[in-house]
Amino acid sequence: SGATTWTQNELHHRRLNAPAVWKDYVLVADFEGYIHIISGSNGQLVGREKPVSNPVGSQILVSDEVIYLISDAGQLVALVQE
Hints:
- The structure is a single chain.
- The chain is mainly beta.
- The chain is built from no helices and seven strands.
- The strands form two sheets. A four-stranded antiparallel sheet has the order 1-2-3-4, with no helix packed on it. Strands 5-6-7 form a three-stranded antiparallel sheet, with no helix packed on it.
- The mean pLDDT is 94.
């Protein structure tokens, strides 16, 4: 319908990239190299990781349950859940 289901205001001013979907979560990366993990059902921030030290301007890619991201400095990272 296009109606808003939830909003997330805790990440305001983080210069987020485009969102990606992983399992039941929404993933976004920011200007400090953090990946923020957001519940897809209610918009709550459920975690964050800092796999790179540079900004991540490009969209996160998810393929076969592996999360890929590349920093603006060219560092490529693949993350898997253990």
